[in-house]
Structures are given as structure tokens and as C-alpha cells.
Amino acid sequence: MRTASAPGKVILFGEHFVVHGSPAIVASIDLRATAIVELMESGDVRLSDGSRGNPAVRAAEHILSRLGASTGLTIEIRSKIPQSVGLGSSAAVAASSSAATLHLLAGRLDHSMILEASYEGEKTVHYMPSGIDTSIATFGGAGLYTRSDGYRRLDIELEEILVV
Predict the structure, then answer these.
(1) Domain locations in the chain as residue ranges
(2) pLDDT grade for 162, boundaries at 50, 70 and 90
(3) DSSP string covering 26-84, please?
(4) Which positions are catalytic?
(5) Which pTM was predicted?
(6) How far is the CA of 80 from the CAs of 22, 35, 45, 91, 131, in angstroms?
(7) Any idea which architecture 2-8+31-140 has in CATH?
């Protein structure tokens, strides 16, 4: 069994224009999604409630495919991030599932593989995600994101963000 968590996010500048190539400033927030991943004897991947249509499942399946593994997994998700309010809950679920699955099966973390798998998981919720949510869920902190260049972490310390 392995556990991993990933943060939600707030986009400070740029919001939906990032989909069209414009830059955005994004920061992680202190709300997280946690995935608990366990090996299962059967060869499929499913949530602990038995369902399969979820970013966590798709992300874990992508990790399995990349590793050439054929084991089954059970994933339990515990999230403090509200859904459908723009805080990146589906990306955090996908990133935490990816990280826990990779650590369980390979004994290591590879952020580029976690990002790739998270993006695949995010596609189950958003047809063509920009990548900003999965980037901040994978790397945390605060950063500049463009679709063409990806995520570049900014060296700033944010104790609190006041949004008016």
C-alpha cells in the first residue's frame, strides 16, 4: 500500500486564456487530495467503491502501461478539495493516484511520469485540458504556466493570498 497527496490550485492571473496559449500565474492551495493505492489480485484498476470512470483510475492505468505492469489496483480517494469550483480537484486526484501507484510499483517518484499520467487522467473530466491544473498538482508551489513551455516554478513565498 502507498499513499500520496497533491494540492488544489488557484489561478491568480490568466485563467481560461491559458487554453489559448496565454501565460498564467498559478499557486497551490492548502487543500489536498490523497490517494491510497493497494495491489489487487484481479487485473483491473478500480476505486474502492468499485467504480472505474475517474481520473484516478485512468492515471493509475497510464502508470501501469508505462511500467509494463499488469497487476490490479484498488484506489481510495480522500479529498478536501471541493469539486467543480475551479480548484483543480480532478487534477489533484489524478496526480495523487499517479504518484502513489508509481511509488508502489517502482519504489520511486518521477515527476515527469506523474505529470504525464495526471494529464491522461484529467482527460476523463476535461476533453482537452490545458495542463495547468496537473502541473500545479504535480509540482506544487507557485509558478508561471504556458501551454507551450509548461510550468516554471517561481521563487516566491506565499503565506496568504488575498483575492478581491
Answers:
(1) 2-8+31-140
(2) low
(3) EEEEEEEEEEEEEEESSS-EEETTS---SHHHHHHHHHHHHHT---EEEEEEEE-SPTT
(4) 133
(5) 0.93
(6) 29, 12, 23, 13, 21
(7) 2-Layer Sandwich (3.30)
